[in-house]
Each structure stands twice: as structure tokens, then as C-alpha cells.
Specification:
246 residues; alpha/beta; six-stranded mixed β-sheet; 8 helices; 29% helix
């Protein structure tokens, strides 16, 4: 069976990772106004942890973000929009209209960039067996359904408790791109990729080792920046853009 190619990364493609949109971080909403004003038809890639808490089937996680989610779906009507689920936003496919949602089970996802193979992932894969058990439990639709029912019966207090616990954690800038690439690239051996894009680690940079380029996407919440891909005669360059420039 042939490997699925999800789409093409074209010039002007925008990569946004780890914005953790919440009461504490509103950077995605600010950036979205800039994207809405663009006439570009290049894809937008939301690389996971877009919202600090967004769980498919848990209504309380959607309610505070209804307007921004509507605007995200609206933009997807005029330019391709891919949402790679992270560890803070998952089981979303039935709830996001017009958006191509790529779950963790389909990551790394294959795209084409300048005629070559590019693999995209939020980044929380091959972390360890303990994490694998944890991440399967929190994504279980039956567990989320029970959580939603219990939360509604308690007037939203359960979700507010979860929200308070998550919000109490401090978001930090991650390891340097060079150090991170040494850890992550061996996990992609045998996948024949020329490009690898990952978020999750809140790093920032782009390095090439032998024939593979590893792109560590910045956290919009921590760095207040995102990456833009530019192609000139199939020569790829990665540009970091900041909220101040947008």
C-alpha cells in the first residue's frame, strides 16, 4: 500500500506551533487577524498545542474558544489549513469544519516540499513507553465522554480544576536546535525524509545533518514567533517571523 501524501508545502506556507491559546496567552488571536488580512492561498500548518486545553467531546474546553475556532474554520475555506494534534489538543476531527486534522496516530505525516519528502509531527512521539500509555488514556473517547458528563453534573468544576492545574505549569523555551536534532533525527532513520518539522519542544531553529534538514518550530507562546517557508527554484529557506512584524 502506498504511503499517503497529505499535501504540498508551497512558498508562503506558515507554520505555527505551541501557541497554547488560553486565558494567559492570546497570541494566536492576534496572529489570526494578520492571516485573515492576507490574500495568500498558501497553506497554514497548526502544529499542535494550538490551545492549552481543547479535547474533542469535552464541551467546556471548546466554549471559551468558540469565536476563534469559527475564524480558524473560516480561513480554511480559502486556504489549506492543516491541524496536527498535540498533547493539549486532540480528538478534534469531528468538531473542526473544513480543517484537515492529522491525529497523533497519523504522525509523522508525509508532505512534499520542493519535490522532496517532508515529515511533519507535533513531536510527542517516541518519547517513552510510559508516555505512550498516558497519551492513549487521555485520548480515549470513552474516558473523555465520562469526563464531560461528570463535569456537566458538577457545573464545570472538574474542567476548571484541570484547567487550573495545567495553567499553573510554566512554559519555557526548550533546548537549542542543534542539541535537539541530535536526539530526534535518529528516530526518523529509515523514513527517507529530506525535511522534518517538529514542534512540542519549544525550541527554535533549522539545521542540516547529512542529507536531512531538521526544523524545530518555535513556540508562539514562548517565542512570539512562527516560521514561513519560502521557495525559489525549489531552493527552500525558512524564515522566522515575529508577532511584532505581523
Amino acid at each position: 500500500m502506498s504511503e499517503k501524501v497529505w499535501g504540498e508545502i508551497t512558498t508562503g506556507s506558515i507554520f505555527i506551533a505551541d501557541s497554547h491559546e488560553s486565558d494567559h496567552f492570546g497570541y494566536l488571536k492576534r496572529l489570526w487577524g494578520f492571516l485573515e488580512a492576507q490574500s495568500s492561498e498558501a497553506p497554514v500548518f497548526l502544529m499542535g498545542d494550538v490551545f492549552d486545553l481543547l479535547f474533542g467531546g469535552v464541551e467546556a474546553s471548546f466554549a471559551p474558544h468558540a469565536e476563534l475556532l469559527r475564524r480558524i474554520s473560516s480561513l480554511a475555506q480559502r486556504r489549506p489549513l492543516y491541524w496536527l494534534e498535540g498533547n493539549h489538543d486532540f480528538n478534534l476531527s469531528p468538531f473542526l469544519e473544513g480543517i484537515t486534522v492529522i491525529g497523533r496516530e497519523s504522525q509523522p505525516a508525509l508532505f512534499r516540499l520542493g519535490g522532496e519528502r517532508a515529515l511533519l509531527a507535533h513531536g510527542d512521539w517516541k518519547i517513552g513507553w510510559g508516555y505512550e500509555i498516558y497519551t492513549k488514556l487521555i485520548r480515549n473517547p470513552w474516558i473523555l465522554k465520562i469526563l464531560n458528563q461528570m463535569d456537566q453534573k458538577r457545573g464545570g468544576k472538574i474542567f476548571e480544576w484541570v484547567k487550573a492545574r495545567v495553567s499553573a505549569k510554566t512554559l519555557r523555551v526548550g533546548p537549542p536546535c542543534n542539541a535537539l536534532s541530535h536526539q530526534r533525527l535518529p528516530l526518523y532513520q529509515g523514513k527517507n525524509a529530506k525535511w522534518i518539522f517538529e514542534g512540542h519542544f519549544h525550541s527554535c531553529g533549522w539545521v542540516k545533518e547529512q542529507e536531512t534538514s531538521y526544523v524545530a518550530l518555535p513556540s508562539l507562546a514562548c517565542n512570539e514567533s512562527y516560521f514561513v517557508v519560502e521557495l525559489n527554484d525549489n531552493v527552500v529557506s525558512i524564515k522566522e517571523s515575529t508577532l511584532k512584524e505581523s
